[in-house]
Specification:
Length: 356
């Protein structure tokens, strides 16, 4: 199994953090595209590319509406000129990339069209591009001058959770990125949806990589879920899960009963936020995937940690991951806390990667 990590898109951190992960056995670094929360994806990817040698660099993930499809491809192909053959384009409809602006994810039909154009441009350097009521053949010029690199293949990984989008990944993609996969049964369900889409296109998804964005935390001997260290390592991921539900991206109905009670209290907290209801997205995502806002610390409990994070002893985590790998999971993509990044990377490298 491969192991990837989210990289915070702060230029200084892109220089140091990707190299840190590479040196500790991580195979992939995923750089997010959430412009209202972090810095620029491609600027940080460029810095990572020139400061590393072997780790694969992926957008984690590029958002469909942030750039037109030809710009998305030329951007990732520019990075591929710096790090030939170790670049991946992760591409999705947009959770934080759009919801932080109060917008829903890109609609399925529009997303499908963008994926088609991107797939064609990545494979052939040209595509039929429909825009502004016009249909035009487009082609990258001057490829012999190496402004961009499409000669070394850039895999397209489609971000997907639901069956329809997973099927789209199977139809067009070279891989899939999904979220919250914590057991073998979910891996099997994901692969079934991928295969349904692939078969419609006369393809097979059997060898298609499946990446799960989740978070791991190794319990030390005798350590409890409410220890300060565990909360520091997992709280940002707990709250990212709550933010996603509050924003309408996920469903509260999937939460265990004990966690549902905590989430109900969180809902009451959200209802009392200072921002008007129509502008609540401006406040809802503070700290998202990065740190825990002070007033949200109380929602990080043993129950919420256990429900949202893959946590256990090193032996338990390795056993779970091996079962998921046997079911078809190719990679775990973790989200370390920004302030505990090195400690988290060290822990996963020492206690998990070294044992797989």
């Amino acid at each position: 199994m491969d192991f990837g990590t989210l990289i915070f898109t702060k230029p200084e951190r892109a220089i140091t953090d990707v190299k840190y992960a590479e040196d500790r056995g991580f195979s992939h670094a995923w750089i997010p595209d959430s412009h209202m929360i972090w810095g620029d994806t491609y600027a940080c990817m460029a810095l990572a590319a020139v400061n590393t040698k072997k780790i694969k660099l992926g957008t984690g993930v590029a958002i469909a509406s942030n750039r037109i499809a030809p710009v998305t491809v030329h951007s990732i192909a520019t990075i591929n000129q710096l790090a030939p053959g170790r670049v991946i384009l992760g591409f999705g409809t947009g959770h934080t990339g759009r919801r932080v602006m109060g917008l829903p994810p890109v609609k399925q039909a529009e997303f499908r069209e963008q994926v088609r154009v991107i797939r064609d441009l990545l494979n052939d350097g040209e595509a039929t591009y429909n825009t502004e009521g016009l249909s035009r053949k487009i082609r990258y010029l001057h490829r012999d001058r190496r402004f961009i690199n499409l000669d070394d293949k850039i895999p397209l990984y489609v971000a997907a959770n639901g069956p329809k989008t997973l099927a789209l990944a199977g139809e067009f993609g070279d891989g899939a990125i999904t979220t919250g996969v914590t057991d073998a049964d979910r891996v099997v369900a994901v692969r079934k949806s991928l295969e349904a889409g692939a078969s419609r296109a006369g393809r097979s998804a059997d060898k298609m990589p499946v990446v799960s964005l989740t978070h791991l935390c190794v319990l030390r001997p005798g350590e409890k879920l409410d220890s300060p260290r565990v909360k520091a390592m997992t709280g940002h991921w707990v709250m990212a899960s709550f933010h996603a539900i509050a924003a309408g991206y996920a469903r509260a109905g999937y939460l265990p009963e004990a966690v549902a009670e905590v989430y109900k209290a969180y809902e009451e907290y959200v209802a009392k936020m200072k921002t008007p209801a129509a502008e609540r997205y401006l406040e809802l995502h503070i700290g998202h995937c990065t740190y825990v806002a002070p007033l949200e610390q109380k929602y990080v409990t043993p129950d919420t940690i256990a429900a949202t994070t893959m946590i256990g002893s090193k032996e338990e985590l390795v056993e779970r991951l091996r079962a998921m790998e046997r079911a078809g999971l190719s990679q775990v993509f973790i989200n370390p806390p920004m302030d505990g990044y090195n400690d988290c990377i060290d822990e996963i490298s020492r206690d998990v990667i070294a044992r797989m």
